[in-house]
Amino acid sequence: MRTHIITLLGLAFTFTLNAQTPETKWPVYRHFATQSRLQYLKSSVRGVREAMDNIEGFTAKFGQTGVMDTVSVALVFHLMPLPDGEAITAADVQAQIDRLNIDFYTPDHPYLSGEYRQSGSSDSEGYAYRHEADRREGFAQVAGLPMIRFCLAVIDENGRPAGGLLQPPATPRAWGVSDSVCRAKYGGSEAWATAYFCNIWVARLAGNNAGFAQLPGGPDESDGIVIDDRFFARTRTDKDNPYYLGRTLSHLMGSYLNLYELWNEYRPCADDMVEDTPIHNADNTGLPDYGYRHVSLCDGNPVEMITNLMDNSTDTLQCLFTHGQVRRMQATLATGGPRGQLRLTPVSCHDENTAGLRDETDLKSGENIRDLSLRVFPNPATGRFTIELLSNREDAGEVNISNLLGELKYRQSLQILNGTIRLDIDATDWGVGVFSVSVISGDKHLTQRIFVGK
Fold first, then answer.
1. How far apart, in whole angstroms, are the C-alpha atoms of residue 226 and residue 78?
2. Are 148 and 104 in contact (CB under 8 A)?
3. Given CB 3.0 to 4.6 Å as the disulfide criterion, which of 47, 73, 191, 298 pairs with 199?
4. What is the pTM for the complete model shown?
């Protein structure tokens, strides 16, 4: 997002014309408290401003020279008792994890699918797009694939076998926008080691707050995400609830991974530090049909990116992160990045979208015992990318690359030796799309997806 100076006219109408809250049957207005929490931390906790400034320096450097790859994040859910006797089930948690993986890991939305890339263009029929602005403004063409997958933790912070679902013996209550839900002395649940686990507290929040996330650079004891249970994904479908798909947590996860929301409640038209997002002066909320010319009141009146996951439209409309947002999240999870240690935690993923990518882990030691690993980078790629195989075995192997329609684009037989093997792949003639890289060697079958753009 390029920074603009808001016009006096825009400022006068910011909250009357553009803070849109259409009537809806769903009684809970989705308000994110991330920005108010961040303001408090910056003003009250020593060192937060300086830490965030240093993180911005690292992020800018990564944007120039960093290499993106696939990252797995271990999740820990603190399921707090709810005042109305409702309960979040293990099935609900899995539904929420599945939603995170759709939004961050798999190409299961219209702007990254093979079908869209073959038939869609900026001139194609509007039915192929989630919103008309995505077609006319080319927003669909800047959609990126974060390649970040989320799985339940399989060990605790001491390396002992453990699940990632906690049910603290707390008193049912509504929690405020503070660190109290994260602190045992206030009746909350203490975080697992925040450098190695993404902690998520699911609780009832006061004031109709949907949740808040802590951006990198804040204090360890409150680091993570707090989400209201009414905005959490559920296995049962409530069509009167415009947020039933679970994208509230996808939005909060973006903040946790250092994305700013597209609007700023304290400085309208402030920069979100991303170049390929248009500037917003307020969030877009409620059940949407705003039409193509829903414009920002900021200088230049850009058309707003309503389908971006860092806006505040409904779950059925939101679907994309931009390339710039993807690169920023990848910087956060990079080795040496502010959340780089998350990549060190062993995980076990058991969903069909990640078959073949499961880490085989010694739960007692936390050490990876896999003797063949696959890395594909940069991801996304622009025409060329590298396949890296790290092995402590010697065996025959085969590398296959195909598109999502199953059409083979590359095949290479090779002798896998003890050490590292790199293959440089020229995909400049393959077109834009998502491709599956598969490596077979003996009893090993590893797979990773890569997005190839222009």
1. 9
2. yes
3. 191
4. 0.73
- What gap in Å lies between CA 198 and CA 341, rounded to an integer? 11
Which residue type, as a one-letter code, is found at position 44? Answer: S
pLDDT tens-digit readout, 348-392: 665 433 333 222 222 223 333 346 778 888 877 888 898 988 777
The whole-angstrom separation of Cα 177 and Cα 427 is 48
- 226 compared with 363, residue with greater pLDDT: 226
Cα–Cα distances (Å) from 37 to 42, 179, 214, 376, in that order, read 9, 9, 8, 37
Tokens of 148: 């970040």
Q: Say how far residue 131 (Cα) sits from the centre of its chain.
A: 21
DSSP 117-141: HHH--TTS-GGGSSSHHHHHS-GGG
Provide the 8-state DSSP code for 69: -
Phi/psi region, residue 237 (left: phi>0; alpha: psi -120 to 50; beta: rest), is: beta
Q: Amino acid identity of 110?
A: P
- Residue 398 CA: distances (Å) to CA of 17, 142, 144, 413, 428: 59, 33, 29, 4, 22
Contact 211/226 with Cβ under 8 angstroms?
yes
Pairing assessment for the beta strands 384-391 and 419-426 based on DSSP bridges: antiparallel
